[in-house]
Predict the structure.
Amino acid sequence: MAVLSLRVYTKHKDAMDERAKQPINTPIAIDPANLGCQSQPGSLARLEPAQGVLVGYSPNWNPDVPTTVNQRLGKRAAVFNTFMRLVNDPVNPVDQNMLDWHAQEVINAGGIMALTLEPIDMKGVTDAIIDKVTDHFRRLNAGGCPIILRYGHEMNGEWTNYGYRPNTFIPGFQKMATAVRAKTNLTAMLWSPNVGAMYPFTATAGDGSTWQTADAANLALLDTNGNGIVDAGDDPYLPYYPGDEFVDWVGLSLYYYQDTAPNAVPQATFFDDYLEGRNLVAYGADASVNLALRNFYQRFAVEKNKPMALSESGAGYLMNQAGATELAVKQGWWEQTLNTATLARLPQLKLIINFEEQKNEAAYVKNWAVTTKPDVLAAYNAHLSQVDSSLLWANKLGVSCDGSLKTNA
């Protein structure tokens, strides 16, 4: 018995030793036979900080990369987002060279990679494809690149091939989550719809997955108020939820959008209203909107005890248009999302990723970046310094193979 007890002690001691926290980008052994690597990180989700908000950015990756964002900031961001497509090619379902390059850029800059993986045909994603890509995630994790995987994002909109198709999306997400967890705890699963304030959304030319074309089985799931159609009285979120056991993080794409000139600053409670389903008719929502069903934070972060991400966020400034200045528009947004009172009131909000890009949309060029224009950057950095005690940067982070994230003051 003494020999057996010693063996049990040694096995568990080795497992605990393996849990010793590593600097965030240090290569780390991931051994499925190691109890320490396979166990859940306590009451927290994979890659969830105990408290504080991870600061993240989504650069355009050409020419802007994580290190250049950090250089402008003068500090190391905790998370960098990238977008990649998942194709139904059993040999090369993702561009492996590109994925490796993105991962190395994140390692060079420090921090965690938020990988938005967009399946071009979720129905056709086979078990073999999932096995191949999750092997790749494990290798990246072992090489020092933790991943927050946003798989099949914005599934409640018609602009994706799996939009308004919970019977396609949910089993697809579940299969990916199951495969990831069999191989690594350093890839966390992020479920992230589009903010549902104006759900159902207005289809535009080219949208191929509208609710009107959903089959009877999908429509039965979408029509939560039972009136035969999808309307503002229906639930914009729950029909697409894969289940607590498959989700580590919950998140939203939540922007301050401007569709027409002139530029205007965000309404004072815009962020709170959209996140928590308040006063939405004032923003143009249908009078029949079910506000309680649009309180994403309460329903999915609080009640399900999940860390929440603003997976895509920011204030879009209309370039070369009249009205409020670029600084005023963007400052109006970060003062709502990154202020001490808001972060204290929303303790489950643990990641904010700013869309650090400029792109053409309809008749306008829109710019969401906060680090590229000197006056905006100066004001932004000054604001960050005021709320720094609530923020988490890469230099404060460490990780272990069980998926737990250590934060240092």
Q: What stands out?
A: The chain has one domain: 2-407.
